[in-house]
Design a protein that fits this description.
single chain, mainly alpha, elongated, 3 helices, about 100 residues
């Protein structure tokens, strides 16, 4: 399912900000749970996860938004995703990706 909720008509900035915070929190909890499942396996699992989620995020497309606005929003979304991954990496005590 590739439905993008952010492309649903009508969300205002406050709703989108609240949704972003909720999703960011959920992603961090998910990463913490994955860390428990991958305990003792090094950090390759995290590096692979980061690669996949960043690649998929960069591949999203939204309809009915001018290309410049979409590019700016996509960059912001990827930056937030990367910041969340970096924070999780630090919290888990993993080394920075090379």
């Amino acid at each position: 399912m590739n439905e993008h909720i952010a492309s649903t008509p009508g969300p205002d900035e406050r709703k989108l900000a609240a949704a972003l915070i909720a999703v960011q929190s959920a992603l961090r909890v998910t990463i913490e749970e994955l860390a428990k499942l991958n305990e003792g396996k090094g950090q390759q699992w995290f590096d692979a996860l980061e690669e996949v989620v960043i690649r998929d995020a960069k591949g999203t497309v939204t309809e009915d938004i001018p290309i410049q606005a979409e590019a700016e929003a996509l960059k912001f979304g990827v930056d937030v995703l990367q910041a969340t991954l970096n924070a999780s990496r630090n919290q888990l005590g993993l080394a920075a990706k090379e």
